[in-house]
Amino acid sequence: MSTPEQNAPVHTAGAAEESRPSLSALLLDPSFWADWASVVGLVGLVIVFGIAQPVFLSIANLQALLLAAAILVVLSIGQTFVVATAGIDLSLAAAVMLGAIILGLVDAAGYGIFLACALAVAATSAVGFLNGVLITAGKIPDFVVTLGTLSGVTGLGLILSGGEPIMVGSTFLLRLASGSLGPFGYPVWVAIAAVIVAHIALYHTRFGVHLLATGGQVESAGALGIRTNRVKIAAYTISGFCAGIAALLLVARIGSAEPQINTSLLLNSVAAVVLGGVSLFGGRASILGPAIGALMLTALVNGLTLLSVSAFYQPLAVGAIVVLAALIMRYQK
Amino acid sequence: MSAVHHIPPSEAILACQGLSKHFGSIRAFTDVAFQARRGEVTAVIGDNGAGKSTLIRCLVGVHVPDGGEIFFDGQPRPFANPDEARKAGIETVHQNLALIDELTVAQNLFLNREIVRRIGPFALLDRKAMKQQARAMLSRLSINMPSVSQRVRRLSGGQRQAISICRAAGSGAKVVVMDEPTAALGVQETANVEALIRRLREQAVSVILVSHNFDQVRRLSDQIWVMRAGRMVATVRSSETTGNELVALVTGAA
C-alpha cells in the first residue's frame, strides 16, 4: 500500500537498517502490481487509447474526462471509509438520488440554493448515520442494512418527487458545473479537495488509525478501548456526506434532480475501491488508490466512447477489469 | 496450608477478598482471596477450568464480580470496565494479544494512545515522535525489532508477544497482567518472553502471570497462588516449593 512511511529508511534500536528493495526486484514482485493496480491500469489505458484515438489525449478531452470523474471520485472516497471498516455501503447511489431530490424540492420551494444544498448534504449524511446505527446497535450485517436503506431511500425519493424530475435553474450550480479555476473545472477541484481532506483524515488523525484498527481486528481494537461502534457509525456518516457532495455535483452537471438511481455509480464506486487496492476485509485502505481507480473507470468509458464502441459494451469492460483487479489483489502481501 | 496468606495492605498492589463470579448456574469461582505484591511476579496456576482466567478478568474489569471486594494500591477499587483499570495503571496482555495485523509496530504500540500535534482546531498524528518513542520502548526492554514501521502481520509469534507486552509495560503501568503469555510459543521464543518478564520485574513493574507451566512459574515468579475447582486453595513462595508440591496442590492430591 502507499503509506509514505513504508519506503522511508528506518533506524532501529540496535538493528540493521531495513534495506530498500531494488527496482528490478520490485518489478518482479506480484504484490507491487497488486498495490499499484489502479495506477498501472490507468497508465495502460491512457497509452492504449492515446494510440488508438489521438483525440483521447487532447486537452479538451482530458478536461472532460476529469470533470466526468469528479462525482465518482467523491463517491469512491465515501465507499473507501466504509470498506476500511470491513463494511459496504450499497445505499450510496440511492442517497445521491435522495440528496438531489431534496436539493431540487427545497430550491423549487424558494428557500434558496444554499439552504437546499445544506439540507441535501444533511439528508444524505443522516442516511449514512442511520446505516451505521442499524449496523452497530441493531447488530445487523452491513450488506442487509444498506440493501434495505437502498430500497427505502429510493422509495422516499420517489414519494417526495412524485416520480417527476425537478429542474434546478440555479446560477450558483451552473457556475459550479461550468466554471473553472486554472486548468480544472470547479467539480475537479471539489474532488481534489475531498481527496486531500480524506487522505489527511485517514493517515494523519487518530480517527484514521482507529478506523483501520476497527476494520482490521474489531475485537482487539475494542479490547484497547477504541469505541468501534462509534468509528463504524462515523464511517457510514462520512459515506453519506460524500453522497451529498456527489448529489450537488450531479444536479449541477445535469441541471435537474432525477428521481432515478444511477446504479453504475454504486457499482463503480465499489469497483474503484477494489481497483485502488483497498481490502474488502477491512483494515487496509488508501485514498489515492480508489481516486485513481475512479479515474481509470471513467477513462475506460471515455476511451470506449471515443472509439465508437457501443455503450452496451461498457459495463462488460468494467466488469472484466474489476474481476481482473480482484485476481491480481490475491497477490497482495 | 492456609488458603489466605495475609500480606500487609501496603505491600499489596492488587488484591481481592471474598470474590465470587458465576455465569448463570455455572460457578466460575467462589470466595476467593488473592494478593499480588508490589514489584513482584505473582503467578496464578491451576487446571483447566479452575477459574484462573475468569479471576484475572474480574480483577482487570472485563467481568464484574458477583460478590467480594477488589483493592488496588490499598484502596477498594472495583473496575467497571477494562478502560478504567487501564487508566488506573493495570495493563493486560490479552491471550489473543490484541494486535492489529495491518498496522505497523509503532501504530500498535500507540494504539488509542496516539501522540498528536495540535494545529489550530485540528489534532494531527505526530508519527515521528511515536516512531522514536516506540524504538525507545523496545530498546528499554531489549526487544530486537528490525523496524517499527513494519506491519505486525509479518512478525513471528514471539515478536508479537513481545510487542503486546511492551505496549502493556510501556505506558507507565503499575501492574501488567499476562494470561498464558508463552502458551503458543517455541522454546527460544518462550525464553525471550521469560527474559522480558524478568526485565519488567527489574524495572519494578508488578506482574501477574497466569500459567500452566509449573517449571516456568517457579523460574519466574516470587509468589504462587493455586486454584482448584473455583477455589483458591493455597499460596506458596516460589523459592520454598517444588514442582511435585505444585502438581499435588493443583490436582488436590496433597
UniProtKB/TrEMBL annotation, chain A:
User: Which cellular compartments is it found in?
Assistant: Cell membrane
> Which keywords label this protein?
Cell membrane, Membrane, Transmembrane, Transmembrane helix
Q: Which domain of life is it from?
A: Bacteria
Could you give one GO CC term from the UniProt record?
A: plasma membrane
Reply yes or no: does the keyword DNA-binding apply: no
**Residue spans crossing the bilayer:** 36-57, 64-84, 90-106, 113-137, 143-163, 184-202, 233-255, 261-281, 312-331
How the protein sits in the membrane? Multi-pass membrane protein
Any GO MF annotation of the entry: transmembrane transporter activity
* Protein name, entry field: ABC transporter permease
Organism whose genome encodes this protein: Mesorhizobium mediterraneum
Q: What taxonomic ancestry is recorded?
A: Bacteria, Pseudomonadati, Pseudomonadota, Alphaproteobacteria, Hyphomicrobiales
From TrEMBL, chain B:
UniProt KW Ribosomal protein keyword:
no
| Sections of the chain in a coiled coil | none
Q: Does the keyword Transferase apply?
A: no
Which InterPro entries does the entry mention? Answer: AAA+_ATPase, ABC_carbohydrate_import_ATPase, ABC_transporter-like_ATP-bd, ABC_transporter-like_CS, P-loop_NTPase
Please indicate which superkingdom the organism of origin belongs to: Bacteria
Q: Where does the ABC transporter domain start and stop, copy by copy?
A: 14-254
Which key words tag this protein in UniProt?
ATP-binding, Nucleotide-binding
Gene Ontology MF annotations? ATP binding; ATP hydrolysis activity
Would you identify the family this protein belongs to, as annotated?
Belongs to the ABC transporter superfamily.
What name has this protein been given in UniProt? ABC transporter ATP-binding protein
Recorded source organism is Mesorhizobium mediterraneum
